[in-house]
Amino acid sequence: MEKADLMAGTIELGDSNRWDVPSWAFNFVLDYLVRRLDGEPIAQELREVDEENVGFLNLGEFEPTVRMQVLSLIHDGLVVDAEQRLPEDLPGRAGGIARLNELAELAGAGLRS
C-alpha cells in the first residue's frame, strides 16, 4: 500500500454532515469544483486547498450563496462528471463512483435543509 492510499480527505457540508474519503476522491471533487467554478473567487480558494494538500474543506465556512452553489454543483453534476472522466477499465471504478454518489446525496440533503 502506498502512502497516498493511506491519506484521506474530509468535506464538511456545513450541516453536521461529513464525507471522509481517500485522498484521490477528495482531490477529484476539488478538481471538479475548480473546473466548474473557474473565474469565480472561490475557485482560487479551492485550488489552494488542493495545492497545499490540506485534505479538509468546510463548506459551512463559505458565504451561504456560495455554499448553495457548490452543493448544487456537487449534487447535479459530480457523478456524471466521474462517469465521463474515470476510465472504464479503472480498477475500483464502480466503488469510486459510489463513493462520489454518497457526497452527491449529502449535497442534495444540504440543499433541502
Secondary structure class reads: mainly alpha
How much β-strand is present in the residues? Answer: 5-15%
For the secondary structure, the number of strands is 3
Radius of gyration: 13 Å
Mean pLDDT comes to 91
Order of helices and strands: HEEHHEHH
Number of domains: 1
Walk across the major sheet and give the strand order. Answer: 2-1-3
Alpha carbon gap, first and last residue: 39 Å
Report on the biggest sheet.
3 strands, mixed
Q: Count the helices. How many?
A: 5
Share of helix, binned: 55-70%
User: What would you call the shape?
Assistant: globular
Oligomer state equals: single chain
Low-pLDDT segments, ≥5 res? 1-5
Describe the structure.
This protein has helices at residues 3-6, 23-36, 41-51, 64-85, 93-112; strands at residues 8-12, 18-22, 56-58. Helix content is 63%, strand content 12%. The chain is built from five helices and three strands; from the N terminus they run H-E-E-H-H-E-H-H. The chain has one domain (3-112). A hairpin with a 5-residue loop joins strand 1 (8-12) and strand 2 (18-22). It has 113 residues and is mainly α. Mean pLDDT is 91; it is low at 1-5. A three-stranded mixed β-sheet has the order 2-1-3.
Essential attributes:
113 residues, mainly alpha, three-stranded mixed β-sheet, 63% helix, 12% strand, globular, disordered N terminus
Topology:
Layout: H1 3-6, E1 8-12, E2 18-22, H2 23-36, H3 41-51, E3 56-58, H4 64-85, H5 93-112
Parallel strand pairs: 1-3
Antiparallel strand pairs: 1-2
Describe this structure in a few short sentences.
It is built from five helices and three strands; from the N terminus they run αββααβαα. It has 113 residues and is mostly helical. A three-stranded mixed sheet has the order 2-1-3.
